[in-house]
Design goal:
single chain; 326 residues; alpha/beta; three-stranded parallel sheet
Length: 326
């Protein structure tokens, strides 16, 4: 069984890379841009290159699904780059291919706000994909850069699903029927995502969980079981949104960036200004086995558990990362 986490934004260190290996994590999609412009994103790639050079026995850069298989064979973790905002492409569609060449494999069309491409989930009015959004999605489809709508609003997400010629991903969010956070997704979105061949990654970020930090393993896996009934077990995976060891000041960068002078507290109050504690049964990369055990307790078959823990994402990687017709 391959284990894949399709979203983390940790304060990276040798300790965390070691924990990935202790947890048997074969691949992680890591955020290398929130609000960075192109050159600032490149600086983050440079930092990852230094980590790859320093810890080659633990991590290496992943670019294809076969790199996940290689990671399993070699006892390492493949690191896949992604953006939580389209800011690295600035206003230049030509940078889509350049970003893919540098190793980016996922790009959200929005973070929480309106972007040049689509509408984020915190805006009052959702105008859907913009003119540039449609052309950028087509270019992302061409080069093999996956459209990610984790932080996007309803209409924009549905239009991305419809317009994209390749299946899209929602790498880190949960169903709104289970917990009505702004970023969790409606039944309509989940059904459209599944029907189009897309993937949902379940988030363990406490603001997206029922009972937040007190969410139980049984409750989390019950949510997965109910979603599997709606979407099919082959269309779901894990995207923990793990932000391990990050200082609370990082939340301000995530939510504010450079777009406001005020502090944006995200899910609705100043109490949410920092990172909440993770559920006690999942605090770092060593605890993926708990999720697999919880799925078994819900009655999932062994093959379904293997799919949710990583095989479904691996099939999606195989189909989504290559250049179209090339």
């Amino acid at each position: 069984m391959h284990v894949i986490d399709c979203l983390q934004y940790c304060n990276w260190s040798e300790k965390i890379f070691q924990q990935m290996r202790e947890g048997g994590v074969d691949a992680v999609h890591v955020t290398i841009a929130y609000h960075e412009n192109f050159r600032e994103m490149v600086a983050n790639v440079e930092q990852w290159n230094r980590w790859f050079e320093r810890y080659p026995e633990l991590i290496f850069q992943g670019r294809t699904g076969d790199d996940v298989r290689r990671a399993r064979r070699e006892g390492r973790t493949a690191i896949f780059f992604g953006f939580q905002n389209p800011s690295p492409i600035e206003d230049d569609i030509g940078l889509v291919e350049i970003c893919h060449t540098l190793g980016a494999r996922f790009m959200q069309l929005t973070y929480n706000n309106q972007s040049l491409l689509a509408t984020g989930c915190y805006e009052e009015e959702d105008t859907g994909l913009t003119r540039m959004g449609r052309t950028v999605v087509a270019e992302m489809n061409r080069v093999g850069l996956v459209v990610d709508m984790s932080h996007s609003a309803e209409r924009s997400t549905l239009e991305a699903i419809e317009f994209s010629t390749r299946p899209i991903a929602i790498t880190h969010a949960n169903p709104a029927f289970w917990h009505p956070a702004r970023r969790n997704k409606s039944d309509e979105v989940l059904r459209a995502l599944a029907e189009s061949g897309g993937m949902l990654g379940f988030s363990l970020y406490p603001h997206h969980l029922k009972d937040k930090s007190d969410c139980t393993l049984d409750g989390f896996c019950e949510m997965i079981a109910r979603t599997a009934e709606m979407m099919g077990p082959e269309r779901i995976g894990i995207g923990t949104d793990l932000c391990q060891d990050q200082p609370d000041s990082i939340v301000e960068w995530m939510r504010v960036g450079r777009w406001t002078k005020e502090v944006d507290y995200g899910e609705g109050s100043a109490a949410n200004a920092g990172f909440p504690p993770m559920p006690e049964w999942f605090t770092d990369n060593r605890h993926f086995g708990n999720v697999a055990d919880g799925l078994a307790a819900q009655g999932f078959a062994a093959a379904e558990i293997e799919g949710i823990m990583g095989e479904n994402w691996l099939a999606f990687f195989d189909a989504g990362f290559g250049v179209a017709n090339g």
